[in-house]
Peritrophin A (Papilio polytes), 228 residues
Amino acid sequence: MRTCVQFAYLLASIAYASAGILLQNAPQCPEQHGVQAYAHPELCDQFFLCTNGTLTVETCENGLLFDGKGAVHNHCNYHWAVECGERKADLTPYSTPGCEYQFGIYPDSHECSTSYVKCAFGIPEQEPCTPGLVYDERIHGCNWPDLLQPYCNPEAVIGFKCPTKVPSHSQAAKFWPFPRFPVPGDCHRLITCVEGQPRLIACGEGKVFDDQSLTCEDPELVPHCGHA
């Protein structure tokens, strides 16, 4: 059976076949079962797909490119996340209201926001950030609000103002320089202060927050949160 490297070399001879078609007289897929995707040697917005041994040329949707890692849609990834190298790509946007590209992630406001817009097939959907985070256009994802100052006000997002100092014998002081504080009525999250700005932190799965020790513990060790 041909190796993947040999297969990729053979694909170069059919690099400009039309997308979405079954290839005739093409090299045999390295694997005869399952689904495998291979980079197009010349184009970043196309790729070769083997489905149970059947070879086709596929085109990524508008706003997506192929890097072998993407799983946004049909093996493709957001164009800003793909390193094409020498492979060429058509990045002409096909825009619809709220979506520059048919697939993409965009801010939903010109102001600091705890949500963003995710487009699929040209349809925008508002998506929330994890509580305590805000949308950061630089990373196309959500981030700590204190990392977006002065654009964002962490105190307004979290609803908490970090004290300039804490009593030396308090439980919070044990975590200095990142003192911790409980969130009233919340058994799953806490607030920690980083350089004087608040961050909302979630306990891991299966853990609850003990407002006495200011640590995340097993539920049976925190009776009032045992069934939270």
In short: The first strand starts at residue 35 and ends at 39. The chain has three domains: 35-78, 104-157, 160-225. The mean pLDDT is 87.
